[in-house]
Design a protein that fits this description.
This protein has 14 helices and 19 strands. It has 424 residues and is an alpha+beta fold. It folds into four domains: 118 residues, Schlafen, AAA domain (Methyltransferase, Cobalt-precorrin-4 Transmethylase, Domain 2, 2-Layer Sandwich), CATH 3.30.950; 52 residues, no CATH class; 161 residues, Heat Shock Protein 90, CATH 3.30.565; 60 residues, Arc Repressor Mutant, subunit A, CATH 1.10.10.10. A six-stranded mixed beta sheet has the order 10-9-13-14-16-15, with helices on one face. α8 packs antiparallel against α11 and α12 crosses α14. The longest helix is centred in the middle third of the chain and has 16 residues. The chain starts with 8 loop residues before the first strand and ends with a strand.
Length: 424
């Protein structure tokens, strides 16, 4: 048939109990299909006694998955063969268990969830954000938060009423996970930031620091300090000392705040910040929040907050704007630069790449500069048109263009013979 298994599609040659783990996974995380009568290679085998097998599938699900999942069974004819398609919808009453265990999909495999994700599924099942759940510690201090609030809002001292207003102290009388993350001593696992400064290549590490066991506000401030150390410098212009930036501080600040506010906190991973001579990469654990598309995230001002309590505190402290304009503000910082930021969004993470804005840092060859001069004054050009203007061969032009695409300077539009290029 030419199809391949993926995170939301699984093939089963025959009906055995193994498919029930995948029913649990789809019910917990995302809609998906299980097709019976196709082997792992995607070859059509077919199913006999279809009506009996459909009833058996239904009974197996009802007898084995708790709570009852939402599913639909369809029978389809392909040539002389018949297949059964089981459509499973993501449920609201998570977690969905099979034999006392909850499952998830990872690419085309089905795996048991760990205790962190199981807790999140349980919280989602009662319509509560993860950050609202009770903190493991109820002995928390907020000196860093108090200092920041004094600085921005003019309050004299932090008290329980203020913590309630910020959403950090629940009406039932306990600190929540958001409070623990913002407290001076934050003992949550994997809630920190791992920063690595590389040399000429990734084999040479010049500096490394893991910022954890402290308030998210302290982590944020320390990451900014390290950024300033490597990407800001001073030059003497006439008699004046002028501060210069290799990467716009505002862009880094926005990207860092975005990573903190939107990350999933119960994934066993730090926020990763990789610092190179020509760029910074910030990887935030967890993909987009449910209900927001990639285009909305990148091009719109729509913001579905995964952690509204933490976001609310960051908003009150003027670290973020409330209406999700972070990506637009990052792009604006690069408005006048050839090199542009890029955003790689997957199901499990969001990676933001901030290139240096110093032209010399791009390390362009003479041939790349020539192609760049040709493209920059045109709306769009085909490869053939660039060949003609540069005098280069097809293969040479393509190699140089691909280099400029990789450096995020030129944008490739379309596929095949109709492919065109323009300045990004």
């Amino acid at each position: 048939m030419g199809m391949k298994e993926k995170f939301n599609l699984e093939f089963k040659k025959e009906i055995t109990k193994t498919f029930l783990k995948t029913v649990s996974a789809y019910s917990n995380y995302n809609d998906g299909q299980i097709i019976f009568g196709i082997d792992d290679s995607g070859d059509l085998i077919g199913i006999d006694r279809v009506e009996d097998e459909c009833l058996r599938i239904e009974n197996m699900i009802n007898d084995s998955i708790e709570p009852a999942p939402n599913f639909k069974i369809e029978v389809k004819k392909i040539g002389e063969k018949t297949i059964i398609v089981l459509n499973v919808m993501k449920g609201r009453d998570t977690p969905y268990y099979y034999k006392g265990k909850a499952y998830k999909r990872s690419d085309s495999a089905t795996l048991e969830v760990d205790r962190f994700e199981l807790r999140r599924l349980a919280i989602e099942g009662i319509n509560m954000d993860y950050e609202e759940a009770g903190s493991s510690s109820q002995d928390l201090e907020f000196n860093k938060l108090e200092f920041k609030l004094k600085e921005k809002t003019g309050i004299k001292n932090i008290n329980l009423d203020i913590l309630k207003t910020l959403g950090l102290y629940n009406k039932d009388g306990y600190y929540n996970i958001a409070a623990e993350l913002l407290a001076d001593d934050n003992n949550m696992e994997f809630s920190g930031i791992d920063i690595v400064r590389f040399g000429k290549d990734i084999s040479k590490i010049l500096y490394r620091e893991t910022i954890n066991k402290k308030s998210l506000l302290s982590q944020y401030d320390r990451a900014i300090e390290i950024f300033e150390q490597y990407y800001q410098y001073e030059e003497i212009e006439g008699y004046i000392r002028v501060k210069k930036e290799l990467i716009p501080k505002e862009a880094f600040r926005e990207a860092l705040a975005n990573a903190i506010v939107h990350r999933i906190w119960d994934i066993n991973s730090y926020i990763q910040i990789s610092m190179y001579e020509d760029r910074i990469e910030i990887i935030s654990p967890g993909g987009l929040p449910e209900g927001i598309s990639k285009d909305e995230y990148l091009y719109g001002n729509i913001s579905v907050l995964r952690n509204p309590i933490i976001a609310g505190v960051f908003y009150r402290l003027d670290i973020i704007e409330k209406f999700g304009t972070g990506i637009a503000r990052i792009n604006k910082e690069y408005e006048r630069n050839l090199s542009k930021p890029s955003f790689d969004i997957s199901r499990n993470s969001i990676c933001m790449l901030l290139p240096t804005t110093n032209f010399n840092q791009l390390d362009l060859s003479e041939e790349e500069v020539l192609i760049l001069d040709i493209v920059k004054d045109e709306v769009e050009l085909s490869r053939g048109e660039i060949d003609e203007k540069s005098g280069f061969s097809k293969s040479k032009t393509l190699r140089i263009i691909n280099n400029l695409v990789d450096k995020n300077i030129i944008q490739k539009l379309g596929k095949g013979p109709g492919t065109t290029y323009r300045l990004k």
